[in-house]
């Protein structure tokens, strides 16, 4: 008879403990912190022209920045942008230094082990920017898999992985940004720049006198998405609904026309 009151007290203690943890989880959710802070902190590389770039005045602009700005507006907070090297973006998200990463980031199984992804908000593929007529006319990937092929790639990107896997005999040159990559191709220090299709378009647009041509490849599927903290169902759900609304109201298409002209963006 004396055990029943103890069991009741134990149940009461457990209920209070669960309620306490639930309150703490709600208070520490990403959306709650963003609202309390009054700003959405974006992590981006700033070195992918037309997607994420730093202009002459030091302002970060691009498709990804505009997308994040609309996202912040929907939350009724300001956007705070933090520029860092591409391969430091996911570590920053894991440490909580940024709330989201939007930086022409391809959704891959390996990256998805570290972060949650919503999207894709854009589907792309690999292409090569080159002045080399022989490279531009190559019909097979084996034509480029030679020691004479020198490919500039962004360090830590899927383009680097793609180059090393598909062209093991080629020379892969890692760069920190695409401005440097374009300079290498201009000076013939690199045979070509391997990157995603939107970056190819921007490189051609920004270097009209360089004699560049772009070779588009359908050998890869590049779904570009928004990286979020894992285990935050509400934030993931909010972002899913945000992208659905952007797509349904032609917001993605408007951003596409602004930054890429007639580039096809699909979800």
User: How many beta-strand elements?
Assistant: 13
Tell me the overall shape. elongated
Order of helices and strands: HHEEEEHEHEHEEHEHEHEHEEHH
Whole-number radius of gyration? 23 Å
Number of helices: 11
The percent range for helix content is: 40-55%
Overview of this structure, please?
The protein has a five-stranded mixed sheet with strand order 10-9-11-8-12, sandwiched between helices. A three-stranded parallel sheet has the order 5-1-6, sandwiched between helices. The protein is elongated, with a radius of gyration of 23 Å. It has 267 residues and is α/β, with parallel strands linked by helices. Mean pLDDT is 85; it is low at 9-27 and 263-267. It contains eleven helices and 13 strands.
Keywords, separated by commas or semicolons:
267 residues, 11 helices, 13 strands, 43% helix, alpha/beta, 5-stranded mixed sheet, 3-stranded parallel sheet
Topology:
Blueprint: H1 3-28, H2 30-37, E1 39-44, E2 47-48, E3 52-54, E4 60-61, H3 63-75, E5 78-83, H4 89-95, E6 100-101, H5 109-112, E7 116-124, E8 126-130, H6 133-136, E9 150-154, H7 158-166, E10 171-175, H8 178-186, E11 192-196, H9 197-206, E12 213-216, E13 222-228, H10 233-248, H11 251-260
Parallel strand pairs: 1-5, 1-6, 9-10, 9-11
Antiparallel strand pairs: 2-3, 3-4, 7-13, 8-11, 8-12
């Amino acid at each position: 008879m004396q055990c029943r009151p103890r069991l009741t007290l134990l149940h009461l203690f457990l209920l209070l403990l669960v309620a306490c943890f639930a309150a703490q989880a709600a208070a520490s959710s990403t959306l709650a912190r963003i609202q309390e802070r009054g700003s959405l902190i974006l992590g981006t590389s700033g070195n992918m022209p037309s997607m994420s770039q730093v202009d002459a005045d030091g302002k970060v602009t691009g498709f990804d920045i505009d997308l994040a700005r609309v996202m912040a507006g929907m939350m009724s907070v300001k956007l705070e942008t933090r520029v860092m090297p591409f391969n430091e973006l996911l570590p920053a998200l894991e440490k909580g230094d940024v709330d989201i990463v939007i930086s022409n980031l391809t959704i891959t199984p390996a990256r998805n082990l570290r972060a949650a992804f919503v999207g894709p908000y854009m589907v792309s593929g690999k292409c090569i920017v080159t002045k080399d007529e022989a490279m531009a006319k190559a019909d097979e990937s084996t034509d480029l898999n030679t020691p004479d092929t020198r490919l500039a790639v962004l360090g830590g990107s899927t383009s680097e992985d793609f180059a090393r896997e598909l062209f093991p005999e080629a020379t892969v040159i890692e760069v920190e940004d695409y401005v440097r990559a374009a300079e290498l191709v201009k000076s013939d220090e690199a045979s070509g720049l391997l990157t995603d299709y939107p970056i190819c378009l921007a490189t051609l647009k920004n270097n009209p006198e360089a004699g560049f041509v772009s070779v588009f490849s359908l050998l890869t599927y590049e779904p570009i998405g928004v990286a979020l903290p894992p285990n935050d169902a509400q934030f993931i759900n909010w972002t899913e609904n945000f992208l659905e609304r952007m797509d349904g109201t032609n917001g993605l298409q408007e951003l596409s026309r602004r930054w890429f002209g007639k580039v096809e963006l699909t979800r």
